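Researcher: Please translate sequence to structure tokens.
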Amino acid sequence: MANAARQVAQGLTRVAQLAAGAGVVGWMGQNCLYNVDAGEAVVLFDRFRGGVQPESRVEGTHLKLPYFHQPYYYSLRCTPRVVQSSTPTKDLQTVNIALRVLSRPQVEHLDKIHRNLGQDYNNKVLPSIVNEVLKSVVAQYNADQLITMREKVSQQIIEILNERAKSFHITLDDVAITHLTFGADFTTSVEQKQVAHQEAERSKFLVAKAEQEKKVRVIEAEGEAQAAELISDALKKNGRGLIEVRRIDAAKEIAANLAGSRNVVYLPTGGKEGSSMNMLLNVGQ
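Model: Translation complete:
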């Protein structure tokens, strides 16, 4: 009995030791290891070495000392953000601009970002610098130039904004103007200007049309005058023969037109010797 009890006690002791060992291993795995996923980086705060460490930890599994090491996670993926701003132009017109920005932190300067701005760096930096750049650039142009020179304005905004973001260790992968509207007064004046331009173009068209019609009438009058002159010369030269030819041609044309009509009846009549009168009657349906 004593031996059996001793064996049971030893077995329980070994189980307790194994359980304790497993607990220690589990505790160490939970508190002494940390994982960094793809697209992330970690800034490590070290109480031994006096604060944030300059080396960033990238994807993988890393060691840490409980209580003494505290990891802070940062996403390295591009983060989209739309910043809206209302700012005056050079000619004192109000313009509303929406700017879409794709940003990410510079991994080699994550310690400075964490020390100076914290994990909420995007909300602290982007709205202020975007508004600052938009106001400085838009103030250099008139309202109509923002439309006609949009590509140049956009490029200038991108260049200045990139320089401002670099001073905060932020990389901008893309910057684009997604929305551009003007105040009600400017919109109304543009519409009125467009209407006036259309009316002016219509007036130019009517003037040009009148000039063309005038030229046509002059050409027609000159043609008729030349025709009359030619007919007069022909009459002087050949007598009334030309008139008789024209009369015969007209009579033939009229007769051909009437012959094709169902309501016309031809009535031949006898007259005096050597003469006759033929009639064409228009008979109603």
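Researcher: Any highlights?
Model: Strands lie at 33-36, 40-46, 51-52, 60-63, 69-75, 79-88, 94-105, 170-182, 264-270, 276-282.
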